[in-house]
Amino acid sequence: MMVTVEELKAMPLDEPIGTAVVDAIETIAGDGLRKFIRERFKPYEGVYRINEMGEYVSEKDWKKFWSALPGWCEQVFMLHDNSHSDDYEEFTGHVLGSMTPDEIGEQYELSVDSELDCVWWTNADEDGFL
Question: How far apart, in whole angstroms, are the C-alpha atoms of residue 120 and residue 80?
Answer without folding.
Answer: 12
